[in-house]
Amino acid sequence: MTDAAPALDVRGLSVRFRMPGGRYVAAVSDASFRLAPGSCLALVGESGCGKSVLASALLGLLPGNADTAGSAVLPDGLDLLTAGEAVLSRTVRGRRIGLVPQSPAAHLTPVRTIRSHLEEAVRELAHPAVSAAARGRRAAREAVRAAAERAAARAAFPASHLDRHPHELSGGLAQRAATALALIGDAPLLLADEPTTGLDRDLVHRTVDELRAHTRDAGRALLMITHDLAAAHRIADTVAVMYAGRIVEISPADAFFGRPGPRHPYARGLLDALPERAFAPIPGAPPELGALPPGCAFAARCPDADARCRTELPATRSGVACHHA
Ligand SMILES: Nc1ncnc2c1ncn2[C@@H]1O[C@H](COP(=O)(O)OP(=O)(O)OP(=O)(O)O)[C@@H](O)[C@H]1O
Ligand code: NI
């Protein structure tokens, strides 16, 4: 870790959804992590464990029935959880946090060309020459056009395809168009929720390598949410494993994927389930987030669990929340 202020400092983040009948769904419980500039943290875990809810909390995009606790602080001290919609929409989304969407094809508007998408984003976010007064003037239009072309080039999107519509692009080029859009505001922090879903293996590798380059080489931080452990292995400096709304382990990626390997029994189970490893799925299913057990949420599936695990929530020590780690 560097001494620089973290690009994002999340402390004790919890999100609960209020449900009819006074019930709660505890989607995220007490999540803490720091993301250093130029580094990538991969947040991994099974479907429904709370990854996207965590991302929505950081962006102020939770629905009205959500209550949050904790803090998520940017380097200048702005707390994303209390900032309010006006600040988030005007100064954070796109500008201080770039969003790499899950499905670029769905994120792009079908009737508009890639150039039109990029130029709109430049007008909105980036170009200092395009002040309100200059808008519509010829010099400003040319500046926008040039900035959009630079943005495309930065994400390796070919200039020859700028006037195409999203459906005329391969999956890889659509992903690059989405990445070009995410980079336009020059945000120091990128957030990617399942950026490789639906891509074939080669394209996963390429997309991840490109994201990596936009992060490490450019001093940006990347929070990548994925259930693709191979993609996480390829890109991450740090791995955070989420189970039933809780981060149960945070480890350096090389120790996690290499030696000594994961320290939490759930994290070990996740890796052992991979086809290229033991191909042995973890028996059972995660608990309902609306009816979490009092102790460790993994106890019912854990080979190491004892009586204490079923009644007592394990504290997090050196990045692992397990009584036995
Ligand atoms: N508005 C809501 N009201 C109640 N519960 C919700 C709401 N939104 C999400 N949830 C619940 O929060 C939990 C976490 O969902 P989330 O989308 O964060 O999972 P995820 O880890 O991103 O899964 P996936 O890998 O499938 O994307 C789920 O159990 C979901 O049903
Ligand atoms: Ni999700």
UniProtKB/TrEMBL annotation:
It comes from Streptomyces toxytricini (Actinomyces toxytricini). PANTHER family: NICKEL ABC TRANSPORTER, ATP-BINDING PROTEIN (PTHR43297:SF13), OLIGOPEPTIDE TRANSPORT ATP-BINDING PROTEIN APPD (PTHR43297). Residues 10-269 form the ABC transporter domain. This is Nickel import system ATP-binding protein NikD. It comes from the Bacteria. It is a peripheral membrane protein. One of its GO terms (molecular function) is ATP binding. Belongs to the ABC transporter superfamily. It is found in: Cell membrane. It catalyses: Ni(2+)(out) + ATP + H2O = Ni(2+)(in) + ADP + phosphate + H(+). It is an enzyme of class 7 (translocase). Its EC number is 7.2.2.11. The complex is composed of two ATP-binding proteins (NikD and NikE), two transmembrane proteins (NikB and NikC) and a solute-binding protein (NikA). Keywords: ATP-binding, Cell membrane, Ion transport, Membrane, Nickel, Nickel transport, Nucleotide-binding, Translocase, Transport. Its main location: membrane.
